[in-house]
Amino acid sequence: MEIAVSVLSADFSVLGEAVDRVAAADRIHLDVMDGHFVPAISFGSPVVEAVDDRTDQPLDVHLMVDRPLAHADRFAERGVETVTVHAEACPDVRRVATRLGEAGVDAGVALNPETPFSVIEHAVDALDRVLVMAVTPGAGGQPFQRAVLEKVRRIDEACDVEIGVDGGVGPANVADCAEAGADLLVSGTAVLGSEDCASVIRTMRRRTERRIQ
Ligand code: DX5
Ligand code: ZN
User: Fold this and answer.
1) Is 92 an active-site residue?
2) Which CATH superfamily groups domain 2-212?
3) Which of 135, 173, 194 for mutating ligand 1's site (highest number of atoms within 8 Å of CB)?
4) Can you spell out the DSSP letters for the chain?
5) What is the distance in A from the centroid of ligand 1 to the CA of 134?
6) Who surrounds ion ligand 2 at CB < 5 A?
7) 144-193 residue pLDDT tens
8) Which pLDDT value is given to residue 121?
9) Is 60 a catalytic residue?
10) Where are the chain's structural domains?
């Protein structure tokens, strides 16, 4: 199981300190929002580059943007390991996945809670990851929608693509995510809201390891 921490809920006046506090995470998850695909605007490639300068952890860029292909190359920079686009913004998932591969990054596709796996199933062989959203994208700190665990199970049964779960993830639900078949957990508020981020990350690891055995 890999754990990524989303820094969306960090204090951006000291973002570097937030990155330092989550050194125990496997990855840093960066939520890029354009104010079109989702109402909020978060940050762009300058912040991604600043985070890359601060840590050696692999970066996952989650593009909550319209026309993701117009942006993908800019984010397929040093340190970015995976770029995840939204199925809802991509008429041709296979083409986007190919372009991301050509840009040298792993290709992820995210599914909003109401978007069924069937929307991308035809192109899943071209993907490195499916990111199952457990909240409506656009903000951190939302409650985990347990119904998406059925989608995780469905994907896990249908293929062997890496499955991520993103939104509202924390110690209370990581074991269920692991049992459903998740390989990567993205957590923001549950980690950064704690004084001891490393301890929350350790707890999540322990609870997933116990449940998978
Ligand atoms: C929501 C983002 C998530 C979110 C996770 O649109 O994609 O990555 O920041 O943060 P929490 O764990 O607070 O939901
Ligand atoms: Zn995200």
Assistant:
1) no
2) Aldolase class I (3.20.20.70)
3) 135
4) -EEEEE-TTS-GGGHHHHHHHTTTSSEEEEEEEBSSSSS-B---HHHHHHHHHH--S-EEEEEE-SSTHHHHHHHS-TTEEEEEEEGGG-S-HHHHHHHHHHTTSEEEEEE-TTS-GGGTGGGGGG-SEEEEESS-SS-SSPPP-TTHHHHHHHHHHH---EEEEESS-STTTHHHHHHHT-SEEEESHHHHTSS-HHHHHHHHHHHHHHHH-
5) 9
6) 31, 62, 166
7) 999 999 999 999 999 999 999 999 999 999 999 999 999 999 999 999 99
8) 97
9) no
10) 2-212
